[in-house]
Amino acid sequence: MTAVGFAGLGTMGAAMAANVARAGFHVRAWNRTPGRVAALLELGVTEAPDPAALAADAEIVVVCVSDTPDVEQVLFGDRGIAAGARPGTIVVDCSTISPSATRAFAARLAAGGISLVDAPVTGGSEGARKGTLSILVGGAPEDVERVRPVLAAMGTTITHFGPVGSGQVAKAVNQVVIATGYLSVAEGLALAMKAGLDPEQVVTALSGGVAASWILANRSGRMIENDYPLGFKVALHRKDLAIALALAREIGVSLPGSSLVAALEDGLIARGHGEEDQSSIARVIRGLSGMED
Amino acid sequence: MTAVGFAGLGTMGAAMAANVARAGFHVRAWNRTPGRVAALLELGVTEAPDPAALAADAEIVVVCVSDTPDVEQVLFGDRGIAAGARPGTIVVDCSTISPSATRAFAARLAAGGISLVDAPVTGGSEGARKGTLSILVGGAPEDVERVRPVLAAMGTTITHFGPVGSGQVAKAVNQVVIATGYLSVAEGLALAMKAGLDPEQVVTALSGGVAASWILANRSGRMIENDYPLGFKVALHRKDLAIALALAREIGVSLPGSSLVAALEDGLIARGHGEEDQSSIARVIRGLSGMED
Asked: Which of A17, A52, A132, B143 gives 20 to 30 Å between its CA and that of B206?
């Protein structure tokens, strides 16, 4: 069975590595902060001392870290993946990072005969645990086909959009759509509640029509309670929105709604709510409207 | 069977009156522009010469016109409903108008023993034809119960939110949620298309996750084609958004996203696109981004 390296065992990465191990792959793992492999030992996962060693033993290396500089460090830093990987190795980057940085990383890896497939995911920690992620893939067709069995162990929907970087573009699009999507529900609920309507009755009545959305169905309750357990952190969405807005600037796309949401999320983070679920954008509208926030 | 008057036979009103007639009510109708009753004659609908005459023969009078001044004219203008209705008559206003004007109209009608139930609808012209509208109702409980059989002939979901005006508040909430909802899909698609992704592949991939919405599922195709058949007119949504933003100001709610959409729709209307479907907000994002708009 293919040997798979896993770099990055955060909430998402640990759950994804576990599913890859359960699918029968030989999984070796590394995490910047030690101790995270312990929970995976019973699945037969072994620990590598650094990314170079991880890559030396693997045909496919999955990277699942936070941001563009983290990916650069894991790939090209001291004892990074590029220092250990043999030619023919494929790196699968499941982090959400810049599409243009992704293309630059791919070019640097190609010099050593290493391929890059970008494969950011949607579906959250629950999707990572259950192996039901939607995986947004960019890369050369032959590389994508080689890594598909590993992707299939992590997610149920695998969409190949085009060359390397295009999975990251699709993820940026997703983060743009949900940015204003959360704001839309937050504004509607603030209006309903301050006007004295029963907000749950409003949600039910609106759910059958044009206003229906996953966010209305699944996150309006948090906004009504004004309590925001995770979910997906505001700070991470803001990071992803920065990637999307940078991409938009690079290619000349103007996103007034997403830019507004970025500014509102900046305020939310400044006030100490960055670790809450993204639905806490409702706090901003409540605060602007003289409601408890 | 209850005698029902119908004032206003536009696209929505004509279809709703037809369903009320099909349900067995004795329907008499009036429209400001003559000739609209002809298509309803085969259903046994008769024509009244003016709203006062319409109301004199009816126990329940349904009003379905465009805006707050139109409702005021039909109710209180020369030969208006108030001039003809007997005490005990209930007016059901299915127009989308100002909640505070609705409460004021209710007080003026009450002086003559006439009740008002506000009952704006969602579900569009297709819902009006099929009798599957969602009806958002405000009014005294006993009035709402008396008119419920007529509402049930027009829609499948009837939600009573509270006292008179609260149906209009719920409709304003709906128009706020969809305002930013359309913008969210328009921004995502502009980014996807200018970045070179296949937008239909993006829609499919995003439809299983947090970005899923009725608008993404049902209106992204129009935005991809850049062609905007109705649907629901930009100009009417802008009118409804003016009502929602006025309500928000009255009660001290700040709606930054909806205010932005109002400004963008103003631009769209100024450029001659007010009669297109609301999804043509995508033209604004395309235009700002140097794409064909």
From this structure: A17
